[in-house]
Amino acid sequence: MVLLAITWVFFIPGKYDVQALVERKGTEYWELSTGSRIGYYKVESTSGDASSPIIYLHGGPGGMIKDEIIEVLKPLSELGHDVYFYDQIGSGHSVRLDHIREYTVARHVADLKEIIEKINSEKVIIIGHSWGCLLAINFIQHHPEKVEKIILEGPGPVLPVNQTLMSEVPPDSLNLRKPERSNEEGNRKAYNLRMRLIQKWAYLFKSKLASDREVDDFFTVLNEELSKSTFCKSEQAKKYKGGSGYYSHIMTVRSFKEVEDKREKLGGIHIPVLILRGQCDNQKWGFAKEYLDLLPNSHLVIIENTGHDLATGNKDRYYELIEDFISPPARTKGYSRL
């Protein structure tokens, strides 16, 4: 009986009834010198104005560009911006790496740097969601001259993570509340023994114990459970589409502790930063507050009755705030520095 259990855990691939990734019509590809093949979707400017291009950085790590975010942000092209949506390495339409040890924060930063070079613009505007905020902040620590403005939505922690911020209590005036569902509940429901072993194997040996297809299908199941904590009420979550990258997720997270602490650089960076947070965001309040404390030209807006998934939760208010911020001059009425 024990032998059968061991055989199942090690050698029998898991099967998950999930929706497979379907290539988005209009997807193009960048071949980067880093070795990354990156799938992206571009919405071209419909205006004669030559405004800075916008790059959207999705969450995760290991997430992907969703059709919903393209539809919400597409009208920014009418303001004179080319808008780029790309799947980060190891996820979505982008290639999966053979050597999973290469999924690191540094690799994502290097990819972003070369993507901006390919766009061939003096400056860009970055919109980062969740993990995409971490990527944006790591990028400006090295290349602040390339960024005109930043929007950080539902930001996770500045790296390396300051664990003491986990217990930071938000001021009552913000009227923040917890979502109905927690990430811990989603993890408990989705994970099984085989996937725990695959994760542990990857962490210890930096290699694959299972195929990308198997783990990515599992990641779809996991993300569907975790997405229930990105809304104020779990019933608001929808069916999760396939395509996210599990090895990119776990190995990039593993590399968080390898990131050099360069927080002190942020105080000298005066790029305008808008921080958007849902009233019942599942990210710790202390993480958002640290951005406000470190970035001298940052401002906060709380979007009511919305969780971590801002674009789906209250897309009209979400878009309005972004449009106001990137349209010169940026309107800051209702913004807070605390």
Structural category is alpha/beta
In percent, how helical is the residue content?
Answer: 25-40%
- In CATH, the homologous superfamily of the domain at 20-177 and 251-326 goes by the name Alpha/Beta hydrolase fold, catalytic domain
* Helix/strand order: HEEEHEHEHEHHHHHEHEHH
Shape: globular
Residue windows where pLDDT falls under 50 for at least 5 positions: 1-5
- Largest sheet report: 8 strands, mixed
In the CATH scheme, the class of the domain at 20-177 and 251-326 would be Alpha Beta
Cα-based radius of gyration, to the nearest Å: 20 Å
Structure write-up:
The protein has 338 residues and is α/β, with parallel strands linked by helices. It has a domain at 20-177 and 251-326: 3-Layer(aba) Sandwich (Rossmann fold). It has helices spanning 2-11, 67-73, 105-119, 131-142, 183-190, 193-205, 212-226, 246-254, 263-266, 285-294, 310-313, 315-326; strands at 28-31, 37-43, 54-57, 83-86, 124-129, 147-153, 273-278, 298-303. Strands 1-2-4-3-5-6-7-8 form an 8-stranded mixed sheet, sandwiched between helices. Strand 3, helix 2 and strand 4 form a beta-alpha-beta unit. Helix 3 (105-119) packs across helix 4 and helix 5 crosses helix 7. The longest helix is centred in the N-terminal third of the chain and has 15 residues, at 105-119. The protein is globular. The N and C termini lie far apart (60 Å).
